[in-house]
Structure formats: structure tokens, C-alpha cells
């Protein structure tokens, strides 16, 4: 569970800081150089008032300033200002680039980690939540700036205090007494602002989640006229976010710059009073006062800037804890390419392991389930003791009501989830001994809903794989009968697909999905309700495409329309995760059981 900084202990905060700081190390040279140039700018900022002080007290006040001296000090001050500006430019450049590179590095690491996680993890996390983690939480630009500014602020305070001590050690010691008040102000602000700031971040995450859900489900929202209700819900969340944001602004307006500026004003008043008291007994040089007050400002300014950035530090620490949670997540996708001896241990928890070499190759496509049981939540089994064999080139069909376990068999076989008991074999080899690349290459999956990317039809068939030629994509489309409608499009295979493929019918999208699967020439074909949403216009093309696809391939199909799997070599009837009937179409009709009842009902519905 994620924690805000007000709920994290000092030890937990330190652990989070150490975790996130490791991402900075590959780019440390940028921050080192930024610090070097920061030292130069800070030193020059403290030195430049001394130049003016010397000019004022030694030449201007006693009226000894000649043209030569004026030009000398003006030129010296100008040179120092130019050097300071150049040093500031390099400091800023190195700091900005370093922060950007670290952000990119973190986002890349989190994105890759997401791809290693199992489907169970995504079942538990809303899409909007994940998007917020990958986009907002990895954007730690202000966090790195704050850390760097904290370091340089400390440096500025030390240099400024040394300068104050050199000018007047007695008054400098008085300025040192102000420091506890500043530290107290920082602690008060941190305590007051953190809770409100974290509530604001939580609302922002909730906004992102709602936006993702509403935009993804816009058709359903408009279909059922839910615009007003959901609009009110969004407006309520948005108002709550605004309320927290407003409170953060109010807190910052009271406890940040105004408070520091007030303490700085008090310090300047104290300095002027002490120098005024001295002037009653001795001459006090105006340039000295100017240099001292300038360094007092240098002493306070970094503190003001640091306090302004405290909210960024709180935000960054919480974001880092969320990143840490994802990076330490153990809900890995089932691992492949491991030794068969290990894979037979059903109690083994598959985490992030290196694949062994010489992983077997799928050649025949024989499939076998041996007493396989599976649970999504670890408590309720959705598959119970499933056993069957599909010989090379045969077709096995699964039928049953919703929730009977049909799709779960496909999920287990595709290695989206790890099964808990039994064995799954391909060509008499444990499925876990094959590499993931081999499984994805030799197993083709066609889902009920075909997702289309915003790209050309050709790119959607190729899935942007540069190793697949345009010609191969066209041949695959012809093979599954998709070419018959693609060639009639305005731009043929180069027609741009809008988001979700909304311009195509369900059947046309499914034909493209067939082509996408067949272009890789898989040895095993999985059809998960592939004909459930087809329209009558393309039904004939779909059926012809399926016949072509199943040729010389081992096929497992989930079927809602029993008429589409009448020619299957074997049909398994599932109920509550168990196989209750098995046989071919004719054998199951003769059995006059569950399958026969389903078939008669569908036949009657079709006649009506």
C-alpha cells in the first residue's frame, strides 16, 4: 500500500530516498559539473559586493575616484558578471539535462518492469492508476532540482556566512542566531503542507483514472445517456482537487517566501541598528554596510528558494515510493525457458529468472493438459483437474456457459497466468521449458475483440514488425479472405485506421485480426470466441478464413455458436471449471446431455 510522507517513518523515507537516488548515479557527471559551476556562481555572487564596497569606501566616499579607477572597477565588475552569467548557464544546462536524462531512465525502467508483470497484476490495477504512475510519478524533474538546490543552498549559506564573518564577525554571529528560527519555519511548513499536498496528489490520480474510464467508455456513456451523471462525478472530483490545490497555495503564501522575507527584513533591521549604534562612536563605512547587507540577502535567498521547493520534495518522495512499489512488485508474468526439472515443481514461485539456453522448438504442435488446476486469486479454483490431448493438426473445441473456465484454459496455455497444479505440455515437453519468444512465435491467438492501432492496414497486420514484409502481409490477408474488402478501400492496404478501427465493421476487424495472426505462420492456433461478434455480411468470409487458418495447424477454439465447431475432432463441455462431457459433435448428440440441449436450443433459435 502506498504511503504519504506524513505516514512514512524516517527510516522508510530514507529507504525510498536511497532507492530513487540509485537512478541518478549513471548521470552523476551532469550533477557534479552543475555543482562545480554552482560553486563558481555562489563565490562570485559573494565577491561582487566586495568589489563595490572597496570602490565606495576607498575611492568614491573620499572623492579619489578618477576616470581610470572608475573604468577599472566597472570593467572588473563587468568581467565578474560575465563569468558569473557563463557559469550560471553551464550550471543550468548540466542540471536540466541531468534531470531530464534521469527522468527518461526511470520511465524506461518502470515501463519495462510493467511488461514483466503478470496479468493478475493488471486485473488488480486500474488503467488510469498505471498511467499516472508511468507519466506523473516518473516525472521527478522538480525533485532532482530540489535536491540539488538543497545542496547548493547549503553551500551558499556557508559561503555567505564566511563572507559575513570576514566583514564583521560580531554581527555575523548575531545572524547565526536567526538560523534556528529558519529551521523551525521549515519544520512547521513541512508538517502543515505534507498532509494537504498528498491529498491533492491522490485526487489528481483519481482524476486521471476517471478520465481514462470515461474516454475509453465514451460510446457506452453516450448510448445510455450517462453524460450528466458522470459529468457531475468528474466535476465533484475536480472541485475537490481544486480545493486541495487552493489550500496548498494558501499555505505556501503564508509559510514560504513571506515568512523568510520577514525574517530577512528583521535581520537587516538588526544589522542597521547595530551599525547605527557603532556610528555614534566611530566612522562606519557605507560600502561595508552595503557588502554586509548584500551577503545577508545571499544568506537568506537560498533558504527562501529551498522552502519554496519543499512541496516538490514531498511530492517527489511520495512518487518515488510509488515507483519503488512497482519496481519491487513480485507478481511476475510466468517465466519461460526454465529447466523442466524446475517447472515440474508446482509449488515453485516463478519470479524473475534468467532463461536457460537450448530451449526446445515447437515442431509438431501436440498439446496435452495433465490434471491442471488453476485459480486467479489463489483461493477459488476456476479450473479443476483438466486433462485432454490434442494431436498435431487436430481441432479441439470448448463449449460451456459463461464462467465455466473456457477462457481460463486459453489464459493458462498462453502463459498469461501461472497454473497451480498439474502439467501443460507441447510436443511432450513441459510448456515452461520453452522460451517466451518460441511460444509467441508458434502460437497464434485470435480474441473475440480485435484491437486496432492508429496506423495503416498493412502496419496493423504486420504489428509494425520490420521483419515482416508488406507482401507477406498482403498474402496473409488474401489467405484469410480479408483482401476482398481491403482492396476496395480508398487507399487499399495503406488506408489509415482510426482509433479502435471504428470505421470497420466487427467482421472486417476480425478478418484483419486473422491476417495479423496468420502472417506469423503459427503452428498452434487459439480461437477465443473469434466468431462471436461477426456480422452477417462477413460471416461467410470469416468461416472460409477460419477453414484456411486451421489447415495443418493444431487448433483449440472456444465457441459460442456450436454450428462453427461441428467439424471439430474433439469437443469438451465445461461446467464450473470441470469437464463434464467430451467427444465429437455426433457422439455428444448421441449422449443426449448438456451439449445436445445447447445445440437443440441454438438450432431452434436460428429457425425462429
UniProtKB/TrEMBL annotation:
The protein's matches in Pfam families, at most eight in alphabetical order, are given as: ABC_membrane, ABC_tran
Q: Name one GO cellular component term.
A: plasma membrane
User: Can you give the residue ranges of the ABC transporter domain?
Assistant: 367-601
Keyword hit for Cytoplasm:
no
Domain ABC transmembrane type-1: residue ranges: 32-315
GO MF terms held by the record: ABC-type oligopeptide transporter activity; ATP binding; ATP hydrolysis activity
Leader sequence range is none
Membrane spanning residue stretches: 30-49, 69-90, 147-167, 173-190, 254-275
UniProt subcellular location: Cell membrane
Q: How does it sit in the membrane?
A: Multi-pass membrane protein
Give the UniProt keywords, A-Z. ATP-binding, Hydrolase, Membrane, Nucleotide-binding, Transmembrane, Transmembrane helix, Transport
Q: What is its main location?
A: membrane
So which domain of life are we looking at?
Answer: Bacteria
Descriptive protein name: Putative multidrug resistance ABC transporter ATP-binding/permease protein YheH
Amino acid at each position: 500500500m502506498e504511503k504519504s510522507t506524513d505516514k512514512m517513518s524516517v527510516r522508510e523515507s530514507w529507504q525510498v530516498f536511497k532507492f530513487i537516488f540509485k537512478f541518478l548515479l549513471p548521470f552523476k557527471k551532469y550533477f557534479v559539473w552543475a555543482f562545480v559551476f554552482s560553486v563558481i556562481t555562489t563565490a562570485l555572487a559573494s565577491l561582487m559586493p566586495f568589489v563595490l564596497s572597496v570602490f565606495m569606501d576607498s575611492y568614491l566616499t573620499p572623492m579619489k575616484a578618477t576616470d581610470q579607477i572608475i573604468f577599472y572597477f566597472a570593467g572588473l565588475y563587468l568581467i565578474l558578471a560575465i563569468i558569473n552569467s557563463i557559469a550560471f548557464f553551464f550550471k543550468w544546462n548540466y542540471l536540466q539535462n541531468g534531470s531530464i536524462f534521469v527522468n527518461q531512465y526511470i520511465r524506461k525502467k518502470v515501463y519495462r518492469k510493467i511488461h514483466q508483470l503478470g496479468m493478475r497484476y493488471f486485473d488488480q490495477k486500474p488503467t488510469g492508476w498505471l498511467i499516472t504512475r508511468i507519466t506523473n510519478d516518473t516525472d521527478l524533474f522538480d525533485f532532482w532540482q530540489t535536491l540539488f538546490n538543497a545542496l547548493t543552498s547549503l553551500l551558499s549559506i556557508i559561503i555567505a556566512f564566511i563572507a559575513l564573518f570576514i566583514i564583521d564577525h560580531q554581527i555575523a554571529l548575531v545572524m547565526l542566531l536567526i538560523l534556528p528560527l529558519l529551521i523551525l519555519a521549515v519544520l512547521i511548513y513541512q508538517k502543515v503542507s505534507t498532509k494537504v499536498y498528498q491529498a491533492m496528489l491522490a485526487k489528481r490520480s483519481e482524476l486521471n483514472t476517471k478520465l481514462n474510464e470515461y474516454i475509453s467508455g465514451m460510446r457506452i456513456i453516450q448510448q445510455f445517456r450517462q453524460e450528466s451523471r458522470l459529468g457531475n462525478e468528474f466535476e465533484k472530483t475536480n472541485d475537490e482537487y481544486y480545493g486541495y490545490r487552493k489550500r496548498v497555495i494558501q499555505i505556501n503564501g503564508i509559510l514560504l517566501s513571506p515568512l523568510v522575507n520577514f525574517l530577512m527584513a528583521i535581520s537587516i533591521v538588526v544589522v542597521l541598528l547595530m551599525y547605527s549604534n557603532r556610528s555614534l562612536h566611530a566612522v562606519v563605512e557605507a560600502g561595508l554596510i552595503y557588502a554586509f547587507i548584500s551577503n545577508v540577502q545571499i544568506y537568506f535567498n537560498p533558504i527562501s528558494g529551498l522552502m519554496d521547493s519543499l512541496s516538490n520534495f514531498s511530492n517527489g518522495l511520495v512518487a518515488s515510493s510509488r515507483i519503488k512499489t512497482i519496481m519491487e512488485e513480485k507478481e511476475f508474468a510466468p517465466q519461460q525457458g526454465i529447466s523442466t526439472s524446475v517447472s515440474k515443481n508446482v509449488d515453485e514461485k516463478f519470479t524473475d529468472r534468467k532463461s536457460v539456453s537450448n530451449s526446445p522448438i515447437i515442431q509438431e504442435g501436440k498439446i496435452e493438459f495433465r490434471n491442471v488446476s488453476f485459480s486467479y486469486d489463489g483461493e477459488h479454483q476456476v479450473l479443476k483437474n483438466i486433462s485432454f490431448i490434442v494431436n498435431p493438426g487436430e481441432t479441439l473445441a470448448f463449449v460451456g456457459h459463461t464462467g465455466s473456465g473456457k477462457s481460463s484454459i486459453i489464459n493458462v496455455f498462453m502463459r498469461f497466468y501461472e497454473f497451480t497444479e498439474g502439467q501443460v505440455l507441447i510436443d511432450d515437453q513441459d510448456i515452461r521449458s520453452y522460451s517466451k519468444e518460441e511460444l509467441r512465435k508458434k502460437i497464434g491467438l485470435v480474441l473475440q475483440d480485435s484491437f486496432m492501432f492508429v496506423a495503416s492496414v498493412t502496419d496493423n497486420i504486420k504489428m509494425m514488425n520490420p521483419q515482416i514484409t508488406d507482401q507477406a502481409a498482403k498474402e496473409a490477408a488474401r489467405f484469410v479472405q480479408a483482401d476482398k474488402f481491403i482492396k476496395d478501400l480508398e487507399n487499399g492496404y495503406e488506408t489509415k485506421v482510426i482509433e479502435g478501427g471504428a470505421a470497420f465493421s466487427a467482421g472486417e476487424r476480425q478478418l484483419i485480426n486473422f491476417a495479423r495472426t496468420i502472417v506469423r505462420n503459427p503452428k498452434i492456433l487459439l480461437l477465443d470466441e473469434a466468431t462471436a461478434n461477426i456480422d452477417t455480411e462477413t460471416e461467410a468470409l470469416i468461416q472460409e478464413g477460419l477453414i484456411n487458418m486451421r489447415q495443418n495447424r493444431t487448433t483449440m477454439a472456444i465457441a459460442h455458436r456450436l454450428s462453427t465447431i461441428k467439424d471439430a475432432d474433439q469437443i469438451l463441455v465445461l461446467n464450473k471449471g470441470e469437464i463434464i462431457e467430451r467427444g465429437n459433435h455426433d457422439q455428444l448428440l448421441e449422449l443426449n446431455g448438456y451439449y445436445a440441449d445447447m445445440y437443440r436450443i441454438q438450432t431452434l433459435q436460428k429457425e425462429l
